Amino acid sequence: MAFFTHQIRRGFSSSIIKNGVIKNVTIIGGGQMGAGIAQVAASTGHTVTLVDTSEDILKKSRKGIEGSLKRVVKKKFADKPEAGEEFIQNVLQNVSISTDAGASVQAADLLLEAIVENLKVKQDLFGHLDELAPANTIFASNTSSLPITDIAGSTSRLDRFGGLHFFNPVPMMKLVEVVGTSTTSQETFDSLLNFSKALGKTPVSCKDTPGFIVNRLLVPYMMEALRLHERGHGSKEDIDIAMKLGAGYPMGPFELCDYVGLDTVKFIIDGWSAKDPHNPLFASSELLNKLVAEGKYGKKTGEGFYKYK
Ligand SMILES: C[C@H](O)CC(=O)SCCNC(=O)CCNC(=O)[C@H](O)C(C)(C)COP(=O)(O)OP(=O)(O)OC[C@H]1O[C@@H](n2cnc3c(N)ncnc32)[C@H](O)[C@@H]1OP(=O)(O)O
Ligand SMILES: NC(=O)c1ccc[n+]([C@@H]2O[C@H](COP(=O)([O-])OP(=O)(O)OC[C@H]3O[C@@H](n4cnc5c(N)ncnc54)[C@H](O)[C@@H]3O)[C@@H](O)[C@H]2O)c1
């Protein structure tokens, strides 16, 4: 059975979002976040098109979704393996993949972006898709740190643009930060909030401030752990153990940096530092810069602060 089709559902000539209820979702970026969001949206009955730049990347996204679904099913259908397998097939049927963002947005009630954490790249993507997408398609970014207002500025749909910030790993993390700008309409904000609930997540409402709520607190903490290590005040292993056993965190800060992606952590902190260079919370880390320069981005590349199989 074909798990995924490469066909775009051309039967829809344009998005037909009804009463602000999001059903068809196009996700741009099939990395750890995009694939995770696609999985959860498809698992909750949404029709998903996942877009990335190459077939190879999308094949990897598909493998990741299948692997994650198997883990979910192992628990959810522990004593009903056949029902579990059926669930997986149904979810996979809800996901199409494509390398053609313009075509895949034609039927989208929601266009959700989860590509690299770079303002210019995000603006270019949204600016381009704004011209191709139906007028009523809602646009949202999963950015970790960039102002939604700045990203939305590349489009002409300022009232239909917001932030939807998910957490990694998406199938496990319950929170979604829903971000409204000064121009996001109440209707759009409500649609995004209700979509988060439909995914089984708990949404919180955030202002368009750097890092929203979680990252504004979490990223400075992670960076301070790196700097503490650089000052020679603790090994990365000891710092990780300390924060897990002494503060009850599921992962230590070095493990978490590797899990998030060191490239993403660097994009976040460099962006904030450029805007507020004297803020010591946003100071850089030589160790982080070195690892990123070496292409060691953490778990997703097989090595970061730690090595992964
Ligand atoms: C920077 C960004 O903008 C914002 C962010 O996202 S910041 C990062 C936020 N995320 C965090 O802080 C994550 C912190 N870590 C955790 O919560 C936990 O370590 C964790 C949920 C990732 C894993 O749980 P843990 O008990 O440590 O490890 P593990 O034994 O691998 O997983 C337990 C179960 O979780 C489930 N699970 C974990 N990852 C999963 C995934 N990707 N898909 C499906 N299920 C998963 C599985 O059921 C797994 O059981 P299994 O091993 O039998 O399959
Ligand atoms: N990693 C996290 O913990 C986390 C959590 C929440 C939010 N975010 C944010 O989500 C976004 C994605 O992060 P990620 O960790 O999934 O990154 P990732 O590196 O795993 O995936 C990014 C994907 O986007 C694709 N891509 C890049 N440019 C593209 C384009 N123009 N068109 C289509 N696809 C393109 C890449 O090929 C890649 O597959 C970033 O903005 C990041 O800040 C990350």
Automatic annotation (TrEMBL):
<dbReference type="InterPro" id="IPR008927">
    <property type="entry name" value="6-PGluconate_DH-like_C_sf"/>
</dbReference>
<protein>
    <recommendedName>
        <fullName>Hydroxyacyl-coenzyme A dehydrogenase, mitochondrial</fullName>
        <ecNumber>1.1.1.35</ecNumber>
    </recommendedName>
</protein>
<feature type="binding site">
    <location>
        <position position="144"/>
    </location>
    <ligand>
        <name>CoA</name>
    </ligand>
</feature>
<comment type="pathway">
    <text>Lipid metabolism; fatty acid beta-oxidation.</text>
</comment>
<dbReference type="InterPro" id="IPR052242">
    <property type="entry name" value="Mito_3-hydroxyacyl-CoA_DH"/>
</dbReference>
<feature type="binding site">
    <location>
        <position position="300"/>
    </location>
    <ligand>
        <name>NAD(+)</name>
    </ligand>
</feature>
<feature type="binding site">
    <location>
        <position position="117"/>
    </location>
    <ligand>
        <name>NAD(+)</name>
    </ligand>
</feature>
<keyword id="KW-0379">Hydroxylation</keyword>
<keyword id="KW-0007">Acetylation</keyword>
<comment type="similarity">
    <text>Belongs to the 3-hydroxyacyl-CoA dehydrogenase family.</text>
</comment>
<dbReference type="InterPro" id="IPR006108">
    <property type="entry name" value="3HC_DH_C"/>
</dbReference>
<feature type="binding site">
    <location>
        <position position="68"/>
    </location>
    <ligand>
        <name>CoA</name>
    </ligand>
</feature>
<keyword id="KW-0496">Mitochondrion</keyword>
<feature type="site" description="Important for catalytic activity">
    <location>
        <position position="165"/>
    </location>
</feature>
<dbReference type="GO" id="GO:0030154">
    <property type="term" value="P:cell differentiation"/>
</dbReference>
<feature type="domain" description="3-hydroxyacyl-CoA dehydrogenase NAD binding">
    <location>
        <begin position="24"/>
        <end position="209"/>
    </location>
</feature>
<dbReference type="GO" id="GO:0070403">
    <property type="term" value="F:NAD+ binding"/>
</dbReference>
<feature type="binding site">
    <location>
        <begin position="29"/>
        <end position="34"/>
    </location>
    <ligand>
        <name>NAD(+)</name>
    </ligand>
</feature>
<keyword id="KW-0443">Lipid metabolism</keyword>
<dbReference type="InterPro" id="IPR006176">
    <property type="entry name" value="3-OHacyl-CoA_DH_NAD-bd"/>
</dbReference>
<dbReference type="GO" id="GO:0003857">
    <property type="term" value="F:(3S)-3-hydroxyacyl-CoA dehydrogenase (NAD+) activity"/>
</dbReference>
<dbReference type="GO" id="GO:0007283">
    <property type="term" value="P:spermatogenesis"/>
</dbReference>
<feature type="binding site">
    <location>
        <position position="122"/>
    </location>
    <ligand>
        <name>NAD(+)</name>
    </ligand>
</feature>
<keyword id="KW-0809">Transit peptide</keyword>
<feature type="binding site">
    <location>
        <position position="52"/>
    </location>
    <ligand>
        <name>NAD(+)</name>
    </ligand>
</feature>
<dbReference type="Pfam" id="PF00725">
    <property type="entry name" value="3HCDH"/>
</dbReference>
<feature type="binding site">
    <location>
        <position position="75"/>
    </location>
    <ligand>
        <name>CoA</name>
    </ligand>
</feature>
<keyword id="KW-0221">Differentiation</keyword>
<feature type="binding site">
    <location>
        <position position="144"/>
    </location>
    <ligand>
        <name>NAD(+)</name>
    </ligand>
</feature>
<comment type="function">
    <text>Mitochondrial fatty acid beta-oxidation enzyme that catalyzes the third step of the beta-oxidation cycle for medium and short-chain 3-hydroxy fatty acyl-CoAs (C4 to C10). Plays a role in the control of insulin secretion by inhibiting the activation of glutamate dehydrogenase 1 (GLUD1), an enzyme that has an important role in regulating amino acid-induced insulin secretion. Plays a role in the maintenance of normal spermatogenesis through the reduction of fatty acid accumulation in the testes.</text>
</comment>
<dbReference type="InterPro" id="IPR036291">
    <property type="entry name" value="NAD(P)-bd_dom_sf"/>
</dbReference>
<dbReference type="GO" id="GO:0005759">
    <property type="term" value="C:mitochondrial matrix"/>
</dbReference>
<dbReference type="InterPro" id="IPR022694">
    <property type="entry name" value="3-OHacyl-CoA_DH"/>
</dbReference>
<keyword id="KW-0560">Oxidoreductase</keyword>
<dbReference type="InterPro" id="IPR006180">
    <property type="entry name" value="3-OHacyl-CoA_DH_CS"/>
</dbReference>
<dbReference type="GO" id="GO:0006635">
    <property type="term" value="P:fatty acid beta-oxidation"/>
</dbReference>
<keyword id="KW-0276">Fatty acid metabolism</keyword>
<feature type="domain" description="3-hydroxyacyl-CoA dehydrogenase C-terminal">
    <location>
        <begin position="211"/>
        <end position="308"/>
    </location>
</feature>
<dbReference type="Pfam" id="PF02737">
    <property type="entry name" value="3HCDH_N"/>
</dbReference>
<feature type="binding site">
    <location>
        <position position="168"/>
    </location>
    <ligand>
        <name>NAD(+)</name>
    </ligand>
</feature>
<keyword id="KW-0744">Spermatogenesis</keyword>
<dbReference type="InterPro" id="IPR013328">
    <property type="entry name" value="6PGD_dom2"/>
</dbReference>
